[in-house]
Amino acid sequence: MALxxxxxxxxxxxxxxxxxxxxxxxxxxxxxxDEVREAYPHSAKVFDEMADEERGHRDxxxxxxxxxxxxxxxxxxxxxxxxxxxxxxxxxxxxxGVDRMRKEAEIMEMQAANFYTKAAAQSQDISVRQLLNKxxxxxKGHERRAGELTETHLTGDAKAExxxxxxxxxxxxxxxxxxxxxxxxxxSTLAPLFAAAFATHSNWETFLxxxxxxxxxxISMGFAEALSDDGxxxxxxxxxxxxxxxxxxxxxxxxxxxxxxxxxxxxxxxFWIATSIAVVIVAIELWAIxxxxxxYMDTPFLQAAFQIVVGGVLVFLAGIFIGSS
Length: 325
Hints:
Elements: H1 11-36, H2 41-69, H3 90-94, H4 98-122, H5 126-147, H6 151-154, H7 158-188, H8 190-200, H9 203-228, H10 239-256, H11 270-296, H12 301-324
């Protein structure tokens, strides 16, 4: 589906997107509050208040919209605008615990502040611009308030706050695209590599197939990441840096288990030597992916390892089956 560029939005559409966004965010915060109310009553209270304030923002925006454009809202949401980071299903966040909800709240408020700041700069109507600027300042305050839910921020130390922000941006700009690339490169290239290996029993030909698959996947993933989000509203940074990170990690993920096939075909048992080394490298790659997901994405290590290993083994076996047939 073709997305609409932010610069193409009319003031009517900007307000409609803002109203829909505030409504959705209020429901997310309310869900967070309900999930943690028993175990974390303080956090639940803050999420309750944030949900109420988002509903208040929605009412302010709709009041302004109604006075200028009437009752009917155009059917446009942030998912229809290029540059918005799509909200993940809320149950995938609540299942990971209160810390993950706290981090998500910080990211949501940062994105909302970025949106209102850019929308205000684009608006030509004075009353619309004033309200958007006001909401931008409020959301920036919410971002700081959401940060106070974490132990790092509860110290009140300004350096800790800056460090937490830096870590959050590092996660958005480098870890997430890099992890997606590494997963794609490590897993998706297994089938063509091992299919070529067992079909030809030639190390050199297998190496060429693996190299082509790795570089091709890296280029494809790099462009896909760069074009998916310009970073202006989500705070995810320069798209081409993210694209380069994703593309490079994709290529590395594929080349890692391709390099063993540089073992010369003239060596005794060269094919089985190269294949054995490649299998060991695949195991290391899958373990590294599971560790990164556990460390940075708040996914339990055993759960991450199971998901990655099952997927990797299935792709690996598919390659062997196809190559041996």
